Amino acid sequence: MPKLIQNKSKNLRILPAKRSKEFVLKKAQDLNVRFIRLWFSDILGQLKSFAITIDELAEAMREGAGFDGSAIEGFARSDESDRRALPDPSTFEILPWRPRENAVARMFVDILNVQGAPFMGDPRNCLKRALKKASDLGYTFYVGPEIEFFYFQNSESTKTLDQGGYFDLTSLDAGSDLRRETVLTLEEMGIGVETSHHEVAPSQHEIDLRYTDALTMADNAITYRLVVKEIAIKNGVYATFMPKPLKGENGSGMHIHQSLFCGDKNAFFDKNDRHHLSKVAKHYIAGLLKYSREICILTNQWVNSYKRLMPGFEAPVDVFWANRNPSSLVRVPTVRTGHEQSARVEFRSPDAACNPYLVFSVLLAAGLEGIKHALELPEPFEQPIAGISDPEKRKRGIETLPRSLGEAIAIAEGSKFLKDTLGEAIFHSLIENKKIEWSKYCAEITDYELEKYLPIL
Questions:
Q1: pLDDT above 70 for 7
Q2: Are the CB atoms for 351 and 274 separated by under 8 Å?
Q3: For FRET with 205, which of 34, 37, 151, 244 sits at 20 to 30 Å CA-CA?
Q4: How far is the C-alpha of 297 from the C-alpha of 173, rounded, in Å?
Q5: Residue 95: CA atoms inside 13 Å, Cβ hemisphere, count?
Q6: Are strands 238-240 and 254-262 parallel, antiparallel or unpaired?
Q7: Cβ of 29: how many Cβ atoms within 10 Å?
Q8: What residue ranges define each of the domains in the chain, with the CATH number in brackets?
Q9: Dihedrals φ, ψ of 55, to 5°?
């Protein structure tokens, strides 16, 4: 499980060191950097990039580098497409898989409009706004995702590399060396890794990133997905974060561990509570449960996402919390004595193909709404959910997550919470994009339909 980055003497979290513009320029010169790739994501979490030369970096860090956002999802209206990309000096890192001679570095950017104001359609800016609201209340938001993926022989099929299972470490795990190289590359880029292992499904793997602040983690998650794919390509295989590529097997999730801190104190821990949960934590979890259906369009944003959220597999389907129930949407890991700083809650529905900036934003906002309104948390539901009928679930107040992207869109479209959290620009672009995807999917004639109906109808 992800854990807090800890100071050996004080058991405190350590935030990434700040870097000045001057430091970046000196570092780039010392490392013979010739090109800088400016990274950002569209509203769907797809990595976008354009490169500048080292000669342009100083001005770019002062004024931003101009680009046309008209072809980027969620970045432009028909009458306004010019944007500026302002590099964040704290995100300067060398790309290890590129040649060292005339090296290439990357920097995440904040997107501005032509007047220099933050662009409201930028997912990174959306997360910054959410974090500012938390900061104004005295909280710092920390997250640790467990990100799963598959290796296949190529991008044209789903031929696996192995038939291994959970935690296998034998010749069955053909991805061991790939994982090892991926972890080393992530660490070379300053990204802490907690654990890595084979997952439940054949050729499925998981690498857990070390707990840190949410903005750094969102940047790290975007980087992680590219590194996994780059190392796979380098070794002649294909890596995918598709939520459910294999029928009859578990899909790839991104369980998100999260906590709030007030200074050096974990706001989620209360030693006198039987679950070791503070009132803040209980209200926070209640907020997650209340808005879980409304945010599904982000935590599970693809048609394929809902093939993972099916009964009979490890992904959650019903909205409840627990300490030990493996079917729960929200799980509260047990806190060991002396490790109070690691108190956290785990939200288990997101998949590995989500946009981490927007998902972290809505999770935090949902939790803060729970705290603001002192939402009551029901008792944990620890019994097996599989044998309970839908009427009995409703009687117990247990809702069900959307069963399709279409249902998720319908719920999200009427959500004032979602619109307020994302802002008008992202909210409307997201709804429009997902409606188009759902409409195209509904118009498709699938192999299932042809195989089932063509011979008999």
A1: no
A2: no
A3: 37
A4: 34
A5: 25
A6: unpaired
A7: 10
A8: 21-117 (3.10.20.70), 128-451 (3.30.590.10)
A9: -65, -20
